[in-house]
Design brief:
Length: 498
């Protein structure tokens, strides 16, 4: 606390400043008020300690460091410093609180395919689900319990993975002024990846008593738990479906995943025209990696993953019937791959036309832009069943009557689980630092459990509004286009009459 002496001075400085705007009080560093951090030895020791922590350092780390009795004894301190002092010292030591000086993040929001997916697939699907969702108001009030008694309520579960670092990973951090655009590679400390599902209706996906949970803690990296592969995501989703079937069988459940390659991965034998020959071919198939029961690849004596050939899954004809891609038993070429020519003929394309059609345009399949019937491969590429191949995840869930919706690429902000990670991480970074794995795991779990259900429901509601706004935008856009077309048509008509 500052005493009356300081108050008197303040008054004096203020008066002086009002009279003369250049008259600012000057702090006399080096005379009486030298800061401890000005001591080079001391500053070096603090620097060294901060560097040992790694990339995600906090001013709080200085506070913690100086609360160690050993350190206090060495420097003749009676107590540690305040957080405010530590923050001032960070600046003196050359750190600035700012975003990581990393490369540019390219934004793909407006990429054509992304816009198409967002406008024509994702938002209509969402609008359709929304009519059957519970609606939440502020203060945790469910304003519309159920709209139609004939349909089941839809519960949307957002999936995501997030990594918690022992030293708290953030984008905004203390960055040393000497640090260039390339961040120091070492030491983010031990880490745990959490994969989980969350809904606005029930919170984290778990049994009502919390004993069974879909939370997965994963120590990613070599020599730890391996990596979160597309096999892992299937296992994880199965765990979620088991809990939902058991405890929430009355709702209709939809899983929302982001567009990561591990999520949208198709089955190895999925329909693809990419490598098909045009003529019938014996032994043609898809090369797949041999795996063990856990989905981990098996390696051959040469150290490379072992491969084997499997037949490609059948296609689907326009009438919905399956179209096997291999000649049946009893055929002259039984078991042979039919080839693109035969496949197209069976789909009703003219035999003569197909016979003359080349297999593909150029060596690199570089058809003219917009061409649709220039070569066999292009025609097959545009067949509905070749376009709409399901991901493994979709097939896996559909078989158990669950649905899957993928977020548009580059739109991970639409996943409200992000706010929940944010909440949990704010709690988490207040725990005392520890790089012990047990502490890390316990801290992560308690931080996750601290996310209140109300915040899901409110974010759920906010999110609903965001989707609604996007949807209205599309409708307006479509209306505008129709009006423009109509006006143009009228103008043309007028020109004809006059
Ligand atoms: Zn072509």
């Amino acid at each position: 606390m500052k005493g009356p002496w300081f108050a008197r001075n303040l008054r004096k400085w203020a008066k002086a400043y009002i009279e003369d705007r250049d008259n600012l009080p000057v702090h006399l560093y080096g005379s009486s008020a030298t800061s401890r951090i000005d001591d080079e030895g001391f500053a070096a020791e603090i620097q060294l300690h901060l560097q040992s922590i790694g990339k995600f350092i906090r001013a709080l780390d200085i506070v913690h460091y100086l609360s160690d009795p050993e350190v206090q004894k060495r420097h003749g301190l009676k107590k540690t410093v305040s957080l405010a002092t530590a923050q001032r010292w960070m600046k003196k030591l050359g750190y600035r609180w700012k975003k990581e000086p990393k490369g540019q993040y390219s934004d793909g929001h407006e990429r054509e395919d992304v816009v198409y997916y967002r406008q024509h697939i994702f938002l209509p699907a969402w609008a359709n689900l929304q009519s059957r969702m519970r609606i939440w108001e502020h203060n945790n009030v469910n304003i519309e319990e159920i709209r139609s008694h004939t349909t089941r309520r839809v519960v949307v579960w957002f999936h995501d993975e997030s990594t918690f670092y022992a030293n708290d990973r953030r984008k905004l951090r203390w960055v040393h002024i000497a640090e260039g655009a390339v961040p120091q590679p070492k030491g983010e400390g031990a880490s745990i990846m959490v994969a989980h599902f969350i809904s606005a209706d029930y919170g984290w996906l778990q049994s009502p008593d919390g004993k069974e949970t879909a939370r997965i803690l994963f120590k990613a990296g070599k020599n730890r738990d391996g990596y979160y592969t597309s096999e892992e995501i299937l296992k994880h989703t199965k765990q979620a479906m088991d809990i939902l079937d058991k405890y929430y069988p009355d709702d209709e459940h939809v899983f929302v995943f982001d567009n990561a390659t591990t999520h949208v991965k198709r089955a190895d034998d999925a329909l693809s025209a990419r490598k098909m020959p045009k003529a019938p071919s014996q032994g043609w198939g898809v090369e797949v990696t041999v795996t063990n029961d856990d989905g981990q690849p098996l390696y051959g004596p040469n150290g490379k993953p072992m491969k084997r050939k499997v037949p490609m899954a059948p296609g689907r004809l326009h009438d919905g019937c399956l179209q096997p891609l291999y000649f049946p038993e009893g055929h002259l070429k039984a078991g042979w791959f039919k080839g693109m020519g035969q496949i197209l003929e069976e789909r009703g394309y003219d035999k003569e036309w197909v016979r003359k059609l080349r297999a593909q345009c150029g060596k690199n399949f570089n058809c003219l832009p917009g061409a649709r019937d220039c070569c066999c491969r292009r025609v097959l590429f545009n067949e509905p069943d070749f376009v709409n191949v399901e991901s493994r995840l979709e097939t896996f869930c559909r078989e158990r009557d669950f649905s899957v919706l993928f977020l548009p690429k580059f739109h991970c902000k639409l996943n409200f689980i992000e706010q929940c990670w944010g909440f949990a991480k704010r709690v988490y970074c207040h725990y005392p630092p520890s790089s012990k794995e047990v502490d890390l795991e316990r801290n992560v779990i308690t931080a996750l459990d601290s996310v209140p259900l109300e915040s899901h429901q409110e974010t759920g509601e906010v999110l609903t509004k965001v989707y609604l706004a996007l949807y209205i935008l599309i409708i307006l856009e479509m209306a505008l286009i129709s009006i423009i077309l109509l006006v143009r048509k009228m103008m043309l008509d007028n020109r004809c009459f006059s």
